[in-house]
Amino acid sequence: MLFKSPEELVVKDETINFSKYFNRIKSNWMWIVLITVIFATLAFLKSPISTNTYSATSTLMIDATPPKPISLQNLPNYDPTQKEFYATQYALLRSNVIAAKVIENLDLTNNPDFMGEPKSTHSSLKARIKQWLIDFKQPSDGSVAVAQSLTHTTPSELKALQIFAKSLLITPIDKTQLVMITYTSKDPSLAANIANAVGQAYINYYVDINSETNKKASEWLTSRLTELKQQLNDSEKKLTDYLAKEQLVNTIAVDELANSELINLTNRLAAITDKRVQTEALYTTLRGSRHLSYNQIDAISEISNHPQIRDITNAETDAENVVAELSKRYGPKHEKMLEAESQLAAIRARKDRMLKRLVEGVKKELESNQRQEREIEAEIKKKKEEFQSLAVKKVHYQALQQDVDTNKQLLKTFLERQKATIATEDYKDSIAHFTDYALKAYPSGPNIKKNVLIASIVGLMLSLCALFAIQFFDTTVESSEEFERYFPLFSLGNIPFIKRLAKKKIPIDEDTLSAKEKPMFFEGIRNVRTALNLAITDDQRTVMITSSLAKEGKTTLATNLASSLAQSEKVALVQVDLHNQGTALSAPQGLSEILTGKAMLSDVMAKSNQNNLVMIPAGEPVADPQELLSSPRFTALLNELKQQFGKVIIDTPASLITSDAFIVAKAADVILLTVAANKTKRNDVEQTLHKFNAYELNVDGVVVNKVL
């Protein structure tokens, strides 16, 4: 055989096939149109008797950053650049907060036109039913009662909120900051009043928020100022106590005085150190020259440059010059010579005494310089210690002073903020204002065209949804292609559905088909014949045709397939439904008589309009058909037919109704399964295949019948 085995076929993944839905719509278009027309008609008939309604519209401009004449830093800020901002404002306009304010301000709970209360006793029953429906829609878990107890909302207020929400429409104007508030009511004046009241309630909502924020800010600032004043007093007291404890007046003056004294001592130390170094150098020179004569000491530059020594040295030089001049004119014994020499000797004696005193003075001066240097160093050390102690105190002082300054600045800031808050507490500010008030309400209903259009759309959508739901949950097979998606079987083709003959209990053949129906129907039969001839070998001559359930068209397929095969070879059509004679091949004698020995094969063969086609009817019904079909006579009959005919087509009962088909299948060469499109469920096909597999029989192919 050329049929693909189950191992060679791969079941495709189940995907959505939209053509099935379109086919469903196409086949049920009259129902869709009928339901749509019914809905439209009901809407058309109901609209004239409906109460007239009126709609009024006011317009608000929402601006999160309006120009402010004064700075209100403590009021809430809004960012209009955020996309959620305007969506939030529209939701707020629809909220129960705004609705409750409007209902309260206009006393709508006591307005019969708004509440829809009956004006006569005739409509009281209708009102009670409506109220019962409203109550029925509420959750039954007690959540409503809890909400009412928490929000103190009465049943009439809840009803008013529901009515209000149904009639309110918030419509933003694209690419603007404007939003339209539309309210629909039976009373035109009430519609205009509510449209304006919603906008005003929204404006007042933000005014109240700003006022409440200002009030809370003022209260908080007042309490905070008291705390800050106490903090300032405490910090100032700590600073004063510390200054008194450390006996400090002003750390800045003390710092300057300490710095000045330290600089002065440092300069004095540097000067005395220089002087001590010079004196020490001179004294060291003198000590190193203590064995020299005074004349030699006088030759030392440090000594000779001394002012007193320099003066007396000059006097000595002058006296020596005088003696030298006089010695040129007078003798050593001359009175003037003696006087000049005496004077020179006196100068030299005085110089010697001066040099001696100078050496002793240098020593004393050195000792004095050293003593002063030590005293200044000790004073500097003492001042440094005092300065370090003062620095520690200064750090503590600065911390206390900074605390005082911070508290003063903070107190000043809060005082300024409090003044600004007090100055602006009467300022009324909101993020919205009216651009247009609702001055007049216009008729808005009933809109017959709109109602009819909406009803038509609803009817159309409901019918389509119903069809889609039916199709979605439909487990039948529509075509051979769909069959192969679910089952690993080879499909020989599709047989089209003849709707005109669907409910008539007559066989579909060339005599019952119209001229328009014949080409399409017989084209499907020829496709099945061609696929069958290509799929089987010459030795496979007996072809059994069965179905899962009754009335799937297996007899129609067997009859027309046999007729089509008879165009090229001899064909025998055998009906083995021994439970009843059926309608296709009714005859007084048939297969049952052959198997019971009451007739011969030649006695029951019936000629058809085609020379190559011979038909063997089922014959009279028997009590136990399975016993006859299991007998050797049936096998012998098939072998005899195979010798005489090129093809033997066997029409068997439905497989899920009787077991006859499984008995016949053991003697047949080819097993074909007929599946009725849009009727046979996949579960039925699965059960049929499971039964064949249980008997170790393989279904070789399938033909999908009655395809739309």
Number of strands: 13
- The CATH homologous superfamily of the largest domain is named P-loop containing nucleotide triphosphate hydrolases
Q: What would the principal axes of the Cα set say about the shape?
A: elongated
- Give the rounded overall mean pLDDT: 81
What features would you describe in this structure?
The chain is α/β, with parallel strands linked by helices and 708 residues long. It folds into 3 domains: 212 residues, no CATH class; 174 residues; 228 residues, 3-Layer(aba) Sandwich (Rossmann fold). The protein is built from 24 helices and 13 strands. The strands form 2 sheets. It has an 8-stranded mixed β-sheet with strand order 6-13-12-7-11-8-10-9, with helices on both faces. Strands 1, 2, 3, 4 and 5 form a 5-stranded antiparallel β-sheet that branches. Strand 9 and strand 10 form a beta hairpin. The radius of gyration is 64 Å and the shape is elongated. The N terminus is likely disordered. It is an enzyme of class 2 (transferase). Its main location: membrane.
